[in-house]
Description:
Number of domains: 2
CATH class of the largest domain: Mainly Alpha
Helix content: 55-70%
CATH superfamily of the largest domain: Helix-hairpin-Helix base-excision DNA repair enzymes (C-terminal)
Number of strands: 0
Strand content: under 5%
Low-confidence stretches: none
Shape: elongated
Largest sheet: none
Radius of gyration: 19 Å
CATH architecture of the largest domain: Orthogonal Bundle
Structural class: mainly alpha
Bound molecules: iron/sulfur cluster
Amino acid sequence: METKAEKKDINVWRRAVLDGLAEQHPDAAPELDFTSPYELLIATILSAQCTDKQVNKVTPALFRAYPTPADLAKADPAEIEPYIRSCGFYHNKAANIVSACRDIAERFGGEVPSTREGLESLAGVGRKTASVVLSNAFGVPAIAVDTHVFRVSNRIGLAEARNVEETEKQLMEAIPQEEWSIAHHWLIFHGRRVCSAKKPACADCMIKDLCRYHKESEGDK
Ligand code: SF4
Protein backbone atom coordinates (compact mmCIF):
# COMPACT_ATOMS: atom_id res chain seq x y z
CA MET A 1 0.00 0.00 0.00
CA GLU A 2 1.44 3.37 -1.02
CA THR A 3 1.73 6.18 1.49
CA LYS A 4 0.13 9.54 0.73
CA ALA A 5 3.52 11.01 -0.15
CA GLU A 6 4.35 8.11 -2.50
CA LYS A 7 0.98 8.48 -4.20
CA LYS A 8 1.65 12.16 -4.73
CA ASP A 9 5.07 11.37 -6.22
CA ILE A 10 3.54 8.82 -8.60
CA ASN A 11 0.94 11.32 -9.73
CA VAL A 12 3.59 14.00 -10.33
CA TRP A 13 5.66 11.47 -12.30
CA ARG A 14 2.65 10.33 -14.38
CA ARG A 15 1.77 13.95 -15.15
CA ALA A 16 5.32 14.63 -16.29
CA VAL A 17 5.28 11.53 -18.53
CA LEU A 18 1.98 12.53 -20.17
CA ASP A 19 3.14 16.14 -20.62
CA GLY A 20 6.39 14.90 -22.18
CA LEU A 21 4.53 12.65 -24.62
CA ALA A 22 2.17 15.51 -25.51
CA GLU A 23 5.12 17.78 -26.15
CA GLN A 24 6.90 15.22 -28.32
CA HIS A 25 3.77 14.44 -30.38
CA PRO A 26 1.67 17.59 -30.73
CA ASP A 27 0.24 16.16 -33.97
CA ALA A 28 -0.98 12.89 -32.40
CA ALA A 29 -4.32 11.92 -33.97
CA PRO A 30 -6.01 8.99 -35.69
CA GLU A 31 -4.07 7.98 -38.81
CA LEU A 32 -6.89 6.08 -40.48
CA ASP A 33 -8.88 8.24 -42.91
CA PHE A 34 -12.64 8.29 -42.28
CA THR A 35 -15.63 10.59 -42.54
CA SER A 36 -18.20 8.59 -40.52
CA PRO A 37 -18.45 5.89 -37.83
CA TYR A 38 -19.16 3.38 -40.63
CA GLU A 39 -15.95 4.23 -42.47
CA LEU A 40 -13.89 4.15 -39.27
CA LEU A 41 -15.34 0.79 -38.26
CA ILE A 42 -14.51 -0.82 -41.61
CA ALA A 43 -11.06 0.82 -41.76
CA THR A 44 -10.28 -0.40 -38.24
CA ILE A 45 -11.30 -3.98 -39.06
CA LEU A 46 -9.06 -3.79 -42.15
CA SER A 47 -6.13 -2.42 -40.12
CA ALA A 48 -5.59 -5.67 -38.19
CA GLN A 49 -2.10 -6.91 -39.13
CA CYS A 50 -1.84 -4.10 -41.69
CA THR A 51 -0.52 -0.54 -41.67
CA ASP A 52 -2.90 2.42 -41.52
CA LYS A 53 -1.18 3.77 -44.65
CA GLN A 54 -2.10 0.66 -46.62
CA VAL A 55 -5.68 0.75 -45.35
CA ASN A 56 -5.96 4.41 -46.41
CA LYS A 57 -4.94 3.38 -49.93
CA VAL A 58 -7.79 0.89 -50.34
CA THR A 59 -10.69 2.50 -48.49
CA PRO A 60 -11.50 5.37 -50.91
CA ALA A 61 -12.42 2.91 -53.71
CA LEU A 62 -14.20 0.60 -51.26
CA PHE A 63 -16.36 3.40 -49.84
CA ARG A 64 -17.09 4.78 -53.32
CA ALA A 65 -18.46 1.37 -54.30
CA TYR A 66 -20.21 0.75 -50.94
CA PRO A 67 -21.05 4.14 -49.39
CA THR A 68 -23.24 2.83 -46.53
CA PRO A 69 -23.49 -0.23 -44.26
CA ALA A 70 -26.63 -1.22 -46.21
CA ASP A 71 -24.58 -1.42 -49.43
CA LEU A 72 -21.98 -3.70 -47.86
CA ALA A 73 -24.72 -5.76 -46.17
CA LYS A 74 -26.09 -6.67 -49.61
CA ALA A 75 -22.71 -7.60 -51.05
CA ASP A 76 -21.20 -11.03 -51.49
CA PRO A 77 -17.88 -11.15 -49.56
CA ALA A 78 -16.15 -12.38 -52.74
CA GLU A 79 -17.04 -9.04 -54.41
CA ILE A 80 -15.22 -7.14 -51.64
CA GLU A 81 -12.02 -9.16 -51.73
CA PRO A 82 -10.42 -7.45 -54.76
CA TYR A 83 -10.74 -4.06 -52.99
CA ILE A 84 -9.01 -5.18 -49.81
CA ARG A 85 -6.61 -7.88 -51.01
CA SER A 86 -3.51 -5.81 -50.19
CA CYS A 87 -4.53 -5.51 -46.51
CA GLY A 88 -3.83 -9.19 -45.76
CA PHE A 89 -6.26 -11.80 -44.40
CA TYR A 90 -8.63 -10.41 -47.00
CA HIS A 91 -10.82 -13.51 -47.12
CA ASN A 92 -11.67 -13.32 -43.40
CA LYS A 93 -11.82 -9.53 -43.39
CA ALA A 94 -14.28 -9.50 -46.32
CA ALA A 95 -16.51 -12.03 -44.56
CA ASN A 96 -16.33 -10.06 -41.29
CA ILE A 97 -17.12 -6.66 -42.75
CA VAL A 98 -20.09 -8.02 -44.70
CA SER A 99 -21.49 -9.80 -41.67
CA ALA A 100 -20.86 -6.77 -39.42
CA CYS A 101 -22.82 -4.64 -41.91
CA ARG A 102 -25.62 -7.21 -42.08
CA ASP A 103 -25.84 -7.00 -38.28
CA ILE A 104 -25.85 -3.20 -38.47
CA ALA A 105 -28.65 -3.29 -41.05
CA GLU A 106 -30.75 -5.90 -39.26
CA ARG A 107 -30.18 -5.11 -35.57
CA PHE A 108 -29.18 -1.45 -35.46
CA GLY A 109 -31.41 0.20 -38.08
CA GLY A 110 -28.49 0.78 -40.44
CA GLU A 111 -26.46 2.90 -37.97
CA VAL A 112 -23.18 1.83 -36.39
CA PRO A 113 -23.95 1.32 -32.68
CA SER A 114 -22.36 3.85 -30.34
CA THR A 115 -22.08 1.53 -27.34
CA ARG A 116 -19.31 -0.92 -26.49
CA GLU A 117 -21.82 -3.73 -26.10
CA GLY A 118 -23.36 -3.06 -29.52
CA LEU A 119 -20.01 -2.72 -31.26
CA GLU A 120 -18.56 -5.86 -29.71
CA SER A 121 -21.61 -7.83 -30.83
CA LEU A 122 -20.63 -7.25 -34.49
CA ALA A 123 -18.61 -9.81 -36.45
CA GLY A 124 -14.87 -9.15 -36.39
CA VAL A 125 -15.15 -6.47 -33.71
CA GLY A 126 -13.23 -7.08 -30.49
CA ARG A 127 -12.52 -4.80 -27.56
CA LYS A 128 -9.67 -2.94 -29.29
CA THR A 129 -11.67 -2.15 -32.45
CA ALA A 130 -14.66 -1.10 -30.34
CA SER A 131 -12.42 1.24 -28.32
CA VAL A 132 -11.01 2.85 -31.47
CA VAL A 133 -14.51 3.48 -32.86
CA LEU A 134 -15.93 4.65 -29.53
CA SER A 135 -13.18 7.16 -28.90
CA ASN A 136 -12.54 8.46 -32.43
CA ALA A 137 -16.02 8.37 -33.95
CA PHE A 138 -18.23 8.93 -30.91
CA GLY A 139 -16.00 10.86 -28.50
CA VAL A 140 -16.38 8.24 -25.75
CA PRO A 141 -13.18 8.06 -23.65
CA ALA A 142 -11.40 4.75 -24.29
CA ILE A 143 -7.88 3.35 -24.48
CA ALA A 144 -7.31 0.81 -27.24
CA VAL A 145 -4.26 -1.25 -26.38
CA ASP A 146 -2.45 -2.32 -29.53
CA THR A 147 1.11 -3.59 -29.81
CA HIS A 148 2.61 -0.06 -29.56
CA VAL A 149 0.51 1.00 -26.58
CA PHE A 150 1.31 -2.27 -24.82
CA ARG A 151 5.08 -2.07 -25.41
CA VAL A 152 5.55 1.65 -24.76
CA SER A 153 3.37 1.95 -21.66
CA ASN A 154 5.03 -1.07 -20.05
CA ARG A 155 8.52 0.19 -20.92
CA ILE A 156 7.85 3.63 -19.46
CA GLY A 157 6.24 2.14 -16.37
CA LEU A 158 2.76 3.62 -16.82
CA ALA A 159 1.67 -0.01 -16.76
CA GLU A 160 3.28 -3.10 -15.38
CA ALA A 161 1.28 -5.84 -16.98
CA ARG A 162 1.62 -9.15 -18.77
CA ASN A 163 -1.23 -8.76 -21.23
CA VAL A 164 -3.35 -6.15 -23.01
CA GLU A 165 -6.33 -6.50 -20.68
CA GLU A 166 -4.26 -5.70 -17.58
CA THR A 167 -2.45 -2.94 -19.44
CA GLU A 168 -5.74 -1.30 -20.39
CA LYS A 169 -7.00 -1.48 -16.81
CA GLN A 170 -3.79 0.00 -15.39
CA LEU A 171 -3.68 2.79 -17.99
CA MET A 172 -7.27 3.70 -17.17
CA GLU A 173 -6.19 4.11 -13.55
CA ALA A 174 -2.98 5.97 -14.38
CA ILE A 175 -4.40 8.45 -16.90
CA PRO A 176 -7.21 10.96 -16.27
CA GLN A 177 -10.34 9.84 -18.15
CA GLU A 178 -10.51 12.99 -20.25
CA GLU A 179 -7.05 12.13 -21.62
CA TRP A 180 -7.62 8.43 -22.38
CA SER A 181 -8.24 8.94 -26.09
CA ILE A 182 -5.43 11.39 -26.75
CA ALA A 183 -2.99 9.43 -24.55
CA HIS A 184 -3.73 6.39 -26.70
CA HIS A 185 -2.56 8.41 -29.74
CA TRP A 186 0.52 9.74 -27.88
CA LEU A 187 1.58 6.19 -27.03
CA ILE A 188 0.99 4.94 -30.59
CA PHE A 189 2.96 7.84 -32.10
CA HIS A 190 5.72 7.29 -29.58
CA GLY A 191 5.89 3.59 -30.48
CA ARG A 192 5.94 4.27 -34.20
CA ARG A 193 8.35 7.19 -34.22
CA VAL A 194 10.63 6.86 -31.19
CA CYS A 195 10.21 3.80 -29.00
CA SER A 196 10.39 1.08 -31.64
CA ALA A 197 10.23 -2.58 -30.66
CA LYS A 198 13.75 -3.48 -31.79
CA LYS A 199 15.73 -0.32 -31.10
CA PRO A 200 14.13 2.44 -29.05
CA ALA A 201 15.67 5.83 -29.87
CA CYS A 202 16.12 6.81 -26.22
CA ALA A 203 18.52 9.65 -27.06
CA ASP A 204 15.67 11.39 -28.95
CA CYS A 205 13.03 10.64 -26.34
CA MET A 206 11.67 13.58 -24.35
CA ILE A 207 10.75 11.39 -21.39
CA LYS A 208 13.98 9.40 -21.13
CA ASP A 209 14.73 10.73 -17.65
CA LEU A 210 11.33 9.45 -16.50
CA CYS A 211 11.35 6.08 -18.24
CA ARG A 212 11.82 2.92 -16.20
CA TYR A 213 13.20 0.90 -19.14
CA HIS A 214 15.77 3.59 -19.89
CA LYS A 215 16.83 3.83 -16.26
CA GLU A 216 17.20 0.05 -16.03
CA SER A 217 19.13 -0.23 -19.29
CA GLU A 218 21.44 2.62 -18.22
CA GLY A 219 22.07 0.69 -15.02
CA ASP A 220 23.06 -2.39 -17.05
CA LYS A 221 25.91 -0.51 -18.77
S1 SF4 B 1 13.40 6.32 -22.99
FE1 SF4 B 1 13.64 4.80 -24.60
S2 SF4 B 1 12.51 3.01 -23.86
FE2 SF4 B 1 11.82 4.79 -22.67
S3 SF4 B 1 10.02 5.55 -23.75
FE3 SF4 B 1 11.76 6.70 -24.47
S4 SF4 B 1 12.43 5.58 -26.30
FE4 SF4 B 1 11.11 4.20 -25.15
